[in-house]
C-alpha cells in the first residue's frame, strides 16, 4: 500500500507525539480516534471552501455502516462526526486538521480530497486506533501512568509456579516493533466473522467488546487457523515447546511468514501474552492475569471432580481439572450493553478450553459481574466464575467396577493469589479481592449461592453441604506433605509425609504413595516413584515419614514445566480414606545478567550472562536466546560450549540500544539437562 501520495505531508513526528503513536516505526500515519491530526497537501490553487474530504475503510465503505465519511471544511471541530478545520494555506499547499469521532471504526483508512465537481484525489492511507487518552472513547483510562503501562509498555512479567511457590518470567510484548500492527490488522481480516460477513464485521470494529471477543478466538488456532496451536501433552515434537518462547514478536512473525499457518505450540501464558500484544497494539489497555489453583469446569456445575485409584494415582479421566495456574487477560473498556456499574476491567481468555457460541473464544466477562455472581451477563460468566470459585470434589474410582466414592470436598482451594504486574514497577500485585469476597466469609458464600441459583443448580447436589453419611463419618487421621530440602531441578527431592491420628484409639493405616511428573495443568505424564507401607498410629500420635526421590529417578521423566505431583492415599481400617497430595514446582538454576557500562542510544554496550552448572554431570547443547524491544532487533542466538559439573560459563555480547528510557532484556538459557532457564534485566538507556 502506498501510504502517501507525492506531495502529501502527514506530519508523522508531530502527529505521532500528540497521539502517543511515536513508538511505531512506520512510514504510514498512525493516529488515535477522537483527536485531531494535521495533514498538508498540494492544491492551493482551489478556493479552500470547496474542499470535500472522503475517509473510508473496509471492503465496501458506506455511510450507513459508518465506514465512510464525507466532510467539508468547517470553522470548528465536530464532537460526533468527522470534520476538517483549515490550519493554513500557502501558494501551493493547504494544511488541514482532521478529527474523527471518538467511536469511529478502527483500522486502515483511505483519505481522499475533492474540490468542486472534479474527481477525488487520493492523499494516501492512515491507520486509526483506539484512544485511551480521550475521555469520549470506550477505552478511556483516566490514569496516565496506567495508559503508559497497559498500552505503551512493551515488557511484561507473567506469574507462574503454584500457590505454594509463585515464580515469574519476563515477556517481550513488542507491540510497536516491525510490522506487528499490520499482522494485527490481518488477524481481524482472517477472523471467522470477517470471512462470513466482511461488511458487518468492519462496521463493528468501533467496539472494543466485539474486537476483544473476535481476537480471543483468533489467537488460538482452533476453528479459524488462528495464530497459536495449543499442546498440553508434554511432547512438543514438530514445534517449539511452549516454555521456550520469550516474546510475541517471533510468534506473530512466524504466523505471517508461514502464510498464516498456526504456530506450534502454545499454552495459556502464550495465548494471553499474544492477545496482550495485539490489544495493546490496537490501543485497548490490556494486562495478563495469573490465577493459581484455577478450575477448568467443563460441565458448568461450579464443581470440579478429580479421580484417584486405590494406589493413589491421579486418574486422567475427568473433563474437569484444577490447573496449578492459568493465565488470561483483562482489558479496560465500558459495557454499554450491561450498564455503567460493569465498566472497567473485562476478562478475555484466548486459551481454547470450552466452546462459546460454537467456537473457542471467551469473554469479555465483566470482572465486577464475576465478583457479584452475576454469571448470566455476557459473555461466558459461568466459566470464568468457576475458574476462581468452583468447589473441588475428590473421588476414589474403582477401575474394575466403575464405582465412585467421595473422599472429601473443598470450597476454599480454587482461585488464589490472583496476580498481575504492578504499574511502572517489576513487582507482583495481588488482585484476588477484585474477583471475590474474602474466602469463607458469609458474603462470599452468598455470592456462590446466587451464582448456583442463576445457573439453575440450587436444587442439585451442593458439594459444600455434606450428606448425612458424611456428617457421621469424619476422617480419623489428617495428613500433609512438608518440604524438607531445596526444590531445584538437579537436586534430590526431599519431603516428609506427616500423619496425625485425630482419635483417642489406635488406628491401622495402609498408605499408597505415588509421584508423577505433570504438566502445569496437573495432567499426569510419567510415573516417577511409588511406595506403600502399613503403619499403626497410637492415640493422638503424629508420625513423620521421610521421602526421598533422587534427581536420577525424576530427571528423564520431568516435563518442561518442572512439576511433580506427590500423592498418599491412606486407607484407614474401619474409617474413611484420606487423600494427601502436594503439587511441587522445581526451580530452574539461576542465570545472572550484567550490563557492563552505561547504556546509551546508538552506542555499543557489553552485556555478560553468567550460568553455573549446579549438577554433578556435564551439560551440553547449551544455547542462549536474548531479546528486548528497543535494545536489539529480532532474537540473538548464542551457542555456549558444554559445561562440566560445577563449571561457570560467562557469555558476552554487544547491544546497540535505539530508544531511550527503561528497557528490558529477556534471556532464555537451555541445555540438555535444563529447559528454558529464564531471567530479565532492566536496562536504563540514556541519551
Automatic annotation (TrEMBL):
UniProt catalytic activity: L-glutaminyl-[protein] + L-lysyl-[protein] = [protein]-L-lysyl-N(6)-5-L-glutamyl-[protein] + NH4(+)
Details of cofactor binding: Binds 1 Ca(2+) ion per subunit.
Enzyme category, top tier: transferase
Source species, domain of life: Eukaryota
Active site: 268, 326, 349
GO MF annotations, alphabetized: metal ion binding; protein-glutamine gamma-glutamyltransferase activity
InterPro entries assigned: Ig-like_fold (IPR013783), Ig_E-set (IPR014756), Papain-like_cys_pep_sf (IPR038765), Transglutaminase (IPR050779), Transglutaminase-like (IPR002931), Transglutaminase-like_sf (IPR036985), Transglutaminase_animal (IPR023608), Transglutaminase_AS (IPR013808)
Annotated binding of Ca(2+), by residue: 389, 391, 439, 444
Matching PROSITE patterns: TRANSGLUTAMINASES
Basic and acidic residues composition bias: residue spans: 10-24
Every Transglutaminase-like domain range: 260-352
EC number in record: 2.3.2.13
One Pfam family named in its UniProt record: Transglut_N
Cofactor: Ca(2+)
Sorted UniProt keywords: Acyltransferase, Calcium, Metal-binding, Transferase
Region (Disordered): 1-24
Family: Belongs to the transglutaminase superfamily. Transglutaminase family.
PANTHER family associated with the record: PROTEIN-GLUTAMINE GAMMA-GLUTAMYLTRANSFERASE, PROTEIN-GLUTAMINE GAMMA-GLUTAMYLTRANSFERASE E
Protein name, UniProt field: protein-glutamine gamma-glutamyltransferase
Organism in which the protein naturally occurs: Thinocorus orbignyianus
